[in-house]
Amino acid sequence: MDRDQARKMKEQLAAFARELAEKHGVVATPRSLGGRTVSEAADVVRAPTLALGLVPQAEGGFGIAVRYRLGIPRARSIVRKVSAEVGPDVDVRRTGRIRPVSELGPRPPAPTSQADGDTDRRRPLRPGISIGHVGVTAGTLGAFVTRANGGGGRAGDSQLYALSNYHVLAGSPEARPGDIVLQPGPADGGLAPGDRIGELTQVVDLDTFEPAFTDAAIARLDRVPVDFEYPVGRVVKTARALGGETVGKVGRTTSVTRGRVTAIELDDVIVGYEDLGALSFDDQIEIESLDDEPFSRGGDSGALVYREDGVALGLLFAGSESGGHSGKGLTYANPIDHVLEILGVELAREQQGAFE
Questions:
Q1: Given this model, what pLDDT does residue 194 score?
Q2: Do 71 and 126 fall within a single domain?
Q3: How high is the pLDDT of residue 157?
C-alpha cells in the first residue's frame, strides 16, 4: 500500500476495533474514570484497545502497525480480527504497559550508580545530561532552542532555552512558570540554589479528555555556558520520520544508543502517568533498539532522537515494558516538528548569546 492507502485503512481499522471493543464491553476512557485513584487510572486502556499506525515495508510502501498490551481482556481476539482485515501487510507487536521514560520500571529513573549516561554536574551544559524540575527526579536535556520568528519571540532574540519533556521540567500540574530547574536533576544530587541552571518557562498542556500529541516543555536558561554538540555533531535540521530510519540519541541513563524507526503515525498510544493517569497520544514514532539492550530506559525522557546524518526526528518521552527484537521494550517519541511548532521555538542555530 502507498501512504495514503495505508492511512485510509488505518482509519477504517480504528473504527472497526472500537466497535469490537464496545461489543465486548472493554471500553474504558479517561472520561469514565470517576473517582478512581491515579494508580488505577494509569492502568486504564481507552477504546480501541489497540494502537494503530503505519509500518515501512522492505519492498516499499506501508503496512499497518498493530500494538496491544499484555493482559487486556479479549485483546488478542480483537487483534486477530483486525489483523485478518489487513492480511499480510500487518505488523503485530505486544508492548506491555507504556510509561513516561522517567517512570519506567520499578525504581524510576535508573539509580545514578546504574546509569551509563552523564549524571554529573556539567558546565558547559550539553545535550544528553541529567536535568529536572526541582521537585522531579531526573530526565534528559534534549536540545537547546530559541524562540522562532513569529512564535511569540522577538526577531533576533538570542535567549536560549532547554527543551525536554513536561514530566521532566514540570513534573506535575502544580508546577508553575518560574519554578527552578536543576542540572543535575534532584535524583542525581542536584540542589538549589547551587545547581540551578534556569527556570520553567512553558509547558504543553496535557488533557485527559483529548488525545495528546506532545509531552514537552522548555526552561529559560540562566547565564550558563553551553556546548551544542551531539555525538553526530551539531543538530539544527528537522524532518518528518518516514519509517525505517536508523536513529540515535544521547540520554541521561543509557547514554548513546542506536535504533530503527519501526512505526510512524501511531494513534491511541496509551501512556500511564503517575500524576495524570492514562493519556492517549496520536501521531507518535516508535523505535526499537538495534542492540541487545533497550533504546531507552528510565531517565532518558526528553532526549532528542536524530538520524545518523544529524537531522532531528523526535523528542523521546515514553517506553514499553516489552517488544522490540531484544524483547526489552520499545521507545516512543513525539514528532519534533510538532513539538517545536506548538512551543513556538526552533533548534538553536547560532552560538551568539551562548556563554561558552
A1: 97
A2: no
A3: 58
d(CA 170, CA 132): 8
What local confidence, expressed as pLDDT, does residue 151 receive?
44
Question: Which amino acid appears at position 271 of this protein?
Answer: V
**Domain count along the chain:** 2
Which pLDDT band, with edges at 50, 70 and 90, does 218 fall under? very high
Residues 183 and 140: beta-carbon distance below 8 Å: no
pLDDT of residue 193: 96
Residues 166, 155 contacting (CB under 8 angstroms): no
What is the pLDDT averaged over residues 49-73? 86
Distances, alpha carbon 148 to alpha carbons 155, 156, 158, 252, 287, in Å? 8, 9, 10, 27, 28
> What is the distance between the alpha carbons of residues 47 and 268, in angstroms, rounded to a whole number?
8
**Average pLDDT over all residues of the chain:** 87
Q: Report whether pLDDT(36) > 70.
A: no
**Comparing 11-20, 79-88, 95-104, 226-235, which segment has the lowest mean pLDDT?**
95-104
Domain contains 344: no
Query: Domain limits at 60?
Result: 1-94
345 within domain boundaries: no
Q: How do beta strands 62-68 and 90-94 pair?
A: parallel
Residue 99 lies in a domain: no
Return the C-alpha cell found at 324: 522490540
In angstroms, the CA 98 to CA 111 distance is: 20
> Amino acid identity of 50?
L
Choosing from 33, 59, 94, the residue where a domain stops is 94
- Give the cell for residue 174: 502544580
Q: Return the pLDDT at 209.
A: 84
Which band of pLDDT confidence, cut at 50, 70 and 90, is reported for residue 265?
Answer: very high
Strand partners, 65: 53, 91
Same structural domain for residues 80 and 124? no
